[in-house]
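SEQUENCE, C-ALPHA CELLS:
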Amino acid sequence: MPPIPGKPLILYLTVHEKSMGCVLGQHDETRRKEQAIYYLSKKFTDYDSKYSPLEKMCCALAWTARRLRQYMLYHITWLIANLDPIKYFFEKPSLSGRIARWQVLLFEYDIVYVSQKAIKGSAIAEFLIERAHEDYVLVTFDFPYENLMSILHIDKEEHNEDIWKMYFDGASNALGHGIKVVFISPKRDYYPITAKLNFDCTNNVVEYEVCVLGLQTALERKAYALKVYGDSTLLIYQLRGEWKTRDSKLTLYQKYIS
C-alpha cells in the first residue's frame, strides 16, 4: 500500500553478519494493523562485513534511508532495531570518518528510535524475529531476455576497465511486486540488491522503481561510467525521449531519473 500522508512510518531493521534486511510499514486508518510498504535486503561487501555490529547498523540505516528517500523524507520514521544507531550518532563525542558521513546523510530525515515494546503486536516484527538467526540465501538473478538494451550511452574514449554494468529486472505476481538489481564492478565483483514493493502499481511503475533503485546505488558506489541493461522496452524508449507518456505517475519517475 502507498503511505498515508501525515502518519509516521515504521522501519524494522535487521542486521546479520553478512547481510541486512528491512521492512517499511505504517499503521492503517484503524491503528490496529500495520501494512507493509516496502521490503529491502542487501548483502554486505567483504569490507562492510568487517564492521562492528553497531557500525553495520549505522551503515544499514544510512543505506536504507537513501533507498527509501522518497518515503522517509516526508514522514516521521519510527525505527525499530536491536541497536539504537541514532543515540550513537548524536551522543558519541567523536565519530570515525565513515560514521560521520553516515550521520550527515541522515540529517535530513526525521528518524526516532522506538523500542519494540512500544509498538503493539506486529506481524512484520514477528516475521523478522523468526528469521533473526537465519542466514540469508544468496538470490540467483536470472534474466531470461537475451536482447538486453542499453539505456545509457558510454563514450568510446572511456577506458573499458572503468565501466560498471547494471542489470535490472522487475516481476509481478499474485504475491506482490519484486525488483532486483545486479552490479558488476570493473574488477568483476558482483553486488546483488533485491526489494519488494508492497503496494498496488502497474508493471511499468515496477520497472521504473527498480531502475531508480539501481541508479541510486550506482551514485552511492561512484559508478559514474555505467552501462545499464534492462528488459523493459517501454522504459528504455521513454528515458531516451523517443516515446512519450501521458501517465502522470510515469512522468514523475522520468523527471526524477533525469
User: Anything to note?
Assistant: The two ends are 26 Å apart (CA to CA). The chain has two domains: 9-130, 153-257.
